[in-house]
Prior knowledge:
- There is one protein chain.
- The chain is mostly helical.
- The chain has helices spanning about 35-40, 60-70, 75-85, 95-105, 110-115, 130-135, 155-165, and strands spanning about 5, 125, 140-145, 145-150.
- The strands form two sheets. Strands 1-2 form a two-stranded parallel ribbon. Strands 3-4 form a two-stranded antiparallel sheet.
- Helix 2 (about 60-70) runs antiparallel to helix 3 (about 75-85).
- The longest helix has 15 residues, at about 75-85.
- The radius of gyration is 18 Å and the shape is globular.
- The two termini are about 15 Å apart.
Amino acid sequence: IEWKGYELWPAELPRPVPTAPTPPIPNKPVVPSRLDFLLIADGIELPKVDKPPRMLTQNAHEAVEYAKQFGKGFEFVEALYRAYWERGVDISDPAQLLCIAESLGLKPVGLLKAIAEKSYKDEITGFDEPAYASGIFIVPTFTIGGERYAEQPYVVLQKAVRAAKQI
């Protein structure tokens, strides 16, 4: 697995203005979101934690690229995902990224320097146009056996991986 960073909200991209939620219509059944539907299909329940909304992800991507240089990219990505999804950690905060890096035995000075200097900016693709030009329209997208998969149930990804191993 090779993790490639696609920054959802580069600093230069205008940020959408949040709108107030539409009040529920009486007697209308609840419709799950696409993420909720996939979680239900895969039998996964996310922990009920508050997560920071609309974070800039550049720092997290820089930290992943830094970790890759020491053979810790996969471990860093896993720790990053768990921090955000399971504990609601603000993964844009360099102090939080530093904690993750230290837990993996990475040098804090190098990580903070990489974040401050945006050392790996060229390894991170921004949205919208640069990502679209590379064929990525939704994050995450998995490229398996030359095919792209976005918002697919686990069983579809598992089947694709098994088929790619046959090649």
